[in-house]
Automatic annotation (TrEMBL):
Name of a matching Pfam family: Ribosomal_L22
InterPro entries: Ribosomal_uL22, Ribosomal_uL22_bac/org-type, Ribosomal_uL22_sf
Organism: Caenorhabditis remanei (Caenorhabditis vulgaris)
Name of the molecule in the record: Large ribosomal subunit protein uL22m
Similarity comment: Belongs to the universal ribosomal protein uL22 family.
GO cellular component, one term: mitochondrial large ribosomal subunit
Coiled-coil segments on the chain, per record: none
Superkingdom of the source species: Eukaryota
GO biological process, one term: translation
């Protein structure tokens, strides 16, 4: 048996007992190409029946989550309808999860990639306009994403660029990642936080409601090469469409023929 004690900052973590079988000889990422790595990872998304699914043993430490504590430190009964979905507190909680050294993902046989979770809170911007900027840099190298956002003269791209720069700085200084430039944007999405309502007076004493929308910008950087395509399947080229059309023409049949 092997006992591991890991400390993060001033907060000590409990000792984790693991068997020697968990530390099997892994396949190094350097020996595989980026395409092979992502082919292994894409197999995790293949749906399986629940009776055939085998849950892997994941050994990690995470601080206890106080369910009776509200994010805004208010007193009283905890309303489950408030604070649902992703919040900055939940997103930052992932940074406090400690995995065992050299943890191997059983489904792929590869070491677990290092991740950095960062959130920019309470930004006065529209979530729909921010979504377009997030889709631009999704699954793109972090340096390339910052360059692409810097070329766009839009407020949403500027806000997202500042968020990625802050996440990259945290990866180097706080989480001690040796090469933060070799990370890619694994997740980037906005979530609407607050709506401050105001009023505007028009002619003939007509009043309209104004909604000032505030959002949280969530980003997750992951170490390793970015995938070749953003979607699950690669985009079909003109030759692929031509082959599909030829197959359709050759598979036609005459109804009621001999």
């Amino acid at each position: 048996m092997l006992r591991v004690l890991v400390r993060t900052g001033t907060e000590s973590c409990r000792a984790v007992s693991t068997s020697s079988a968990a530390f099997s000889i892994p396949v190094k990422k350097d020996e595989l190409s980026a395409k092979d790595v992502w082919e292994r990872r894409s197999k995790l998304r293949i749906p399986k029946l629940q009776k055939d699914e085998q849950l892997s043993s994941k050994v990690y430490f995470a601080p206890e989550w106080d369910l009776e504590k509200k994010p805004n430190l208010d007193e009283g009964f905890v309303d489950p309808l408030k604070g649902y979905g992703m919040t900055p507190e939940k997103w930052e909680y992932y940074n406090k999860v400690v995995w065992q050294p050299n943890y191997i993902v059983p489904e792929t046989g590869l070491p677990k990639a290092k991740e950095v979770f960062h959130c920019k809170e309470s930004v006065h911007f529209s979530p729909k306009r921010m979504w377009a900027a997030c889709q631009l840099v999704w699954k793109m190298n972090v340096d390339e994403a910052i360059t692409q956002l810097d070329m766009q003269q839009l407020k949403g791209c500027t806000l997202l660029m500042e968020t990625l720069k802050k996440a990259k700085t945290r990866a180097a200084n706080e989480f001690h990642i040796e090469y933060p430039s070799q990370m890619y944007v694994a997740d980037a999405f906005p979530v609407q936080s607050n709506i401050v309502k105001g009023a505007r007076r028009h002619a003939h004493d007509n009043w309209n409601t104004i909604r000032y929308r505030y959002i949280h910008i969530f980003v997750r950087l992951e170490e390793g090469p970015a995938p070749a395509q953003k979607q699950r399947h690669s985009t079909k080229s003109g030759w692929d469409h031509m082959d599909a059309y030829y197959n359709y023409l050759r598979s036609r049949s005459v109804k009621y023929s001999i």
